[in-house]
Protein 1
Amino acid sequence: SRFTADLDIRVYHSPARRDVNTHKTTSHVPPPPPPPPRTAKVLMLLNCLEFNKALHTLFQESDQWKFHNDDDDDGVEKLIQEARFLSWFAVLQTDLQEDGRRSPPNVLCAKGSSLRKGSSVVACGSPFGSLCPDLFTNTLSTGIVSNLSGEGNAVILTDARCLPGTEGGGLFVTEGHDHLSSSSSAHLVGVIVASLCWKGVEWIGLTLVCSVQAILRNLRDVAERMEVDSPLRVELSRLRLHGGAPEGLQLLNTASPSSSSSSSLLRRYPTVCLIDSGQFWGSGVVVAPHLVLTCRHVVNGKKTVTLRFHHEEEGDRIHVCVGDVLFSTQPSSSYDFAVVRLRDSAPEVVEVPVVAESFQPGEEVVVVGYGALGKRCGPSLTGGVLSKAVSWDRRPVMLQTTCAVQAGASGGAVVRKRSGELLGIVSSNTRDCAANVTYPHLNFSIPGSVFQPLLQRFSQSGDVEVFRGLDAVDPGVQRVWRLQNPPSKL
């Protein structure tokens, strides 16, 4: 068409790149100069229907989602138009083979339908587009799968941090290893769609990805509907589309045959539910068959709340029950804390979670909560490290992590990644009111060592008054939670 004919498309590539499948690089010789960009032409523009459908289900207009960092706001019409084009992909044709060099290696693909929350992933893209491609091409960022939605998990959300310009880059899943190493292999699982996701004025710190399995399925369906002698079909036929993947693009099932659920990793962690108090909602952590911990601002002064448990291994079936708010700290308390008792036993609770007794700054942690997508999806997982354990009078009173925490994650669980021990309860992220900016990767949690002794006393006596100790105002702890300098003890 005239539109594609007028496009001047250049493809930059780096043959002396690091190989993500072997994690080796040839550093014993000086790297060759970057090759000149190659021209490319558009074979087709493809709409991924499964991705499009899931987008309209998850990202509601009322939540004012944006997938860029544009200060200009043209209202709801602009948001609708933007969402309409997020599911469109360009299929390009170019020749990356150089004289005297072998062709680029085939790419292995993984099925999005077999992904699990918490799976380790690597994002590969070129931040800032064509700006200094020799510096930014094939930049890597690690993270985990935060959430999945749509038919065949067409929508993938990851906490791997990406920058503008990485759109169109690949998301790779590592087989059998937490990180890339010399013995691991990486498989393409998705294409990066949006590196910056905003919900209203809140940057959520997650990257939006479309499953490559869904893209290839739509590409195959379009090719099959073309005339047999169509030049475009001839070009696509060279890809040898069979079984939903071109030749050389083998689809890897990342889940074991006996595990079709994305919640297997969640079972290592405490059970987290969504708590709805009417005007507000957030997360809660089940610490006993009938007991859930959350934040004061989540229950919002109500005597009863609704709790929702997602059964992801049963097709996202939701179990709804009612809980009575047994205790909520006073507004003057340093701790934003509440206790809810279920009228029925919580589902899926195998055992009472182990509450950690010590904290090691720098250790890997995961936050489990209903941030970002909230009621429209199951709990999200975001990874990071315990950046700091703040103590007062020789006892931990606040935890800080680098996990991406959004509105709705309050009351969620901070867990030790490898053991699943409960480290604390998420209280809040950070917001700069003057700049109207939210920082999801700086957040604050109540250490488990603060409430665990009270839980033990309550389990023995059944007296809810044991939690009243959290209402005591300690000036030092209060200053910590108000982000003020503690008074000197000199």
Protein 2
Amino acid sequence: MGKKVRRKAHGHGASEGIENQEETQSLTETVHNESSSDADIDPVSNIPSSTPETRSTNDGRAVDNSKADPSKVTKSGAPSTDSAGLLVDQPSAKKWRNWWTRAFTTFVMVTSFAGILYAGHLAVVLLVVIIQTLVFREVIGIAYGLAKKNRLPWFRALNWYLLGSTNYFLYGESIIHYFKKTVIVDEFLLPLASYHRFISFMLYCIGFVLFVVNLKPDYKFQLSMFAWTHMTLLLVVFTSHFTINNIFEGLFWFILPVSLVICNDVMAYIFGFFFGRTPLIRLSPKKTWEGFLGALVCTFIFAFIFSGYLAQFPYLRCPIPSSLGGATAFQPEIVACNNIVFLPVEQPLTPMLSRFLSRLFMREIKTVAVAPVQYHSMFLAGFASLIAPFGGFFASGVKRAFQLKDYSDLIPGHGGVTDRMDCQLLMGFFANMYIQAFVGNAGMEVGQVLQMTLEYLTSSQQVELYQRLGDYLDRQGLLQP
């Protein structure tokens, strides 16, 4: 097209040459149009993707390649944003405006968080449930936009039903485990506890049947949406369930992991803001090696000091009371919790360190009190600095896949709830696994013995156990006359 055809001297030859060239050009244009059409259609959602002239950058913005500088266009056709995405390269006014916005909203969130902690264990559990629901709503909302265009019936209602049935199973497991002494002896709760897993499975089956009944000929797309829902349930709901279990183990095990992620995130932003020059990963163009390493060091120091401070308060380190009412910081209902990991032990200092600290504090220091939990906090700090950020990178990958800048604009300067909680979900999961493996209280609790008695002994055996236990306690003088 646009090429001039050189005609031959002989009429017949010239006509044949022009005809052959026109056929070749027509075939080429047809193949090009078909390939362009195929490239512009998403094979799963059947929704047109960005055209070759318009592509999305790493931060989710759509750009016009026809107006881009050819020297700054990557191999994929999108303009390079590696250097422009760094905070140090942004205009000073914009950078500092975003700084103060983030600082203000962070202050508000931290202050609100501290107030909820004072309200007690159950208030913190309610906070986690609300956050979990908001994250689920934001992530499912991405798929809902596609489902709405494809006119899927009952898509949103089915998702919320599956969320409810999943929460029924997970929270029921936690209540049965941590409140045995209340649940096992209650006439109404005992049948629900005994058949809890069967009831939960049947609730899920109802949702599964509803999904199959509503299948339409576009099976591939509907199955992909079903998989999206289950991925969200796994990565959001199941992981937040372990965070709630951390609260039941003691507010210490909720506050410390959450604070470590916040510290790491804030320090990474500050170091990247002032010193960041080396991009860390393409999924998050604003993340830098300088921010990553600076946050790593600061998180370890913060973990050692902050964990020792929190370990002083029985209200924070003790598990939730066995009564469903819980406790508050103003009316603590603390049971005996003598886990040795919270008890400080005097550790001798090396001569060099002793001289340094003695001169720094102007008094002789030869030993320092360190609780074992402060050593455990080092492993939590390592995970918060090295592994948890990949939860954020994964969330960034999802945003890039759907050309989103943020999951929502609910939190000014931060984006959506998912943008703030992506690392926390993975961190809470790890903290619970670490507690169960290395820190958990040894021995058997009264609730466990009571549960075994009711499940494995017959009525006559339970009466015999009661009489024998009463005789033993009476001989020991432990029963009041």
Protein 3
Amino acid sequence: MLPTSSPLPYSDGGHYSPKTSKKLELKTTFHSVKSQIPGNQCTWLIVTVFLQILIIYSLGRASPSTSQTAAQQQRFELVAADLVDENCRFGRVFVYDLPAMFNQELLDNCHDLDPWSSRCNAVSNGGFGPPATGLEGVVPANLTPAWFWTDMYSAEVIYHERMKEYKCRTENQDKATAFYIPFYAGLAVGKYLWFNYTSKDRDYHAAAMLDWVKNQDPWRRSNGSDHFIMLGRLTWDFRRLTDDVTEWGTKFIYMPLMKNVLRLSVERSKWDALEISVPYPTAFHPRSESDILQWQSFILNRQRRSLFSFVGATRKKIRNDFRGILMNYCKSETTTCRVVDCSETRCYDGAPAILEAFLDSDFCLQPKGDGLTRRSTFDCMLAGSIPLFFWRGSYEDQFEWHLPHDATTYSAFVDQEAVRNDTAIIRRVLEKFSREDVDRMRETIAEFLPKVLYWRFGVHGGAADAFDVAMDSVLRKFRFQLRNKFHL
């Protein structure tokens, strides 16, 4: 399972297809033979080859044995019977009990997950992190116990913990519509992304996990086509193309056994139909529906003094750094922009300074992050502030299960090239929105807010949260797949 240096027969744009390869090989061979045979024998040859192909094709599509057919029928009858449950109308999820090295041991060795500092705080409390402090006077006092310093890359742990208590979980493999692989791929590769580690180091856990799961009965039945996994880091961290040690990341997504597996990630590749982006975790984890209602009322009635805000740090090593352009402009707009310079202020996992800035402004500037998306966008909307994007890729083809399809209902856009030419365009564009426009967009954000938050563990009932929306969508997708294949 360890990677080799041979070229990969697949790319970001599609997957290697054995059927296509064999057809191409057959076609090439046929033309090669045809060129060696006189024309008066060609008709006979074509007929003979055609008949042989029909025989081989028929044998390849021969019906499975009676015992296999009966076993499949029994399983699909069990799945279909479960679909009448109104609480789990799209089916149930089976959670693999992976060897501890793929999840629990990573948590146990949290001090060794990052080359610079311990990650133990980040993975504590089921991925929510330590309880938040310093929020007195920033959020309503009775809501402060619902706030945690949640790391932006902790979703792998959060999803696993939620899955343990998920209402549509089943321990019967034959009743499952979907199969969840609780492998913490982002935590596993984290410390190997920097310094002098080899490609084999970066791929070790992923390759070992696939070597284990390929031997499980559900995988053997479907070749992974009804399996899914949560990736806590950006998709680009799992898309290394070569085994060059200078290239970033692991090639987990490009490993052949991953070609059918559905992947949830905080940022997806828009060219990959098997990848779905889900919201970054924020600091607020409601304990009840009343928490949600109170917070919605709080952000809708908040008096805001600034037209817009910018939270971030410049990247001096990047030529023409766009964040630097926004920072300089915002600092010059003292009456309209509230700025938090993270090179001077401690910015961590929804810190009080970040939350205050967003609560105080109508709009928030959202340039690219390490990828096209940012955790900051969700911190901004959590506070009822309206994101201003500069790259269409920051919202197009992202978070489709959780955010409105029409981005103009909750956000604004100015192309980054226009800003580079004239930074004042930011203020001119935002000032064109009437107070009614702003209020309507904020109401839209407040309305969908429950769907982008992750509730406290043990909370059941009420509005669906980000996890519930993702699971319903995963099961619906696999349910549709089953219905088409077996006419359930």
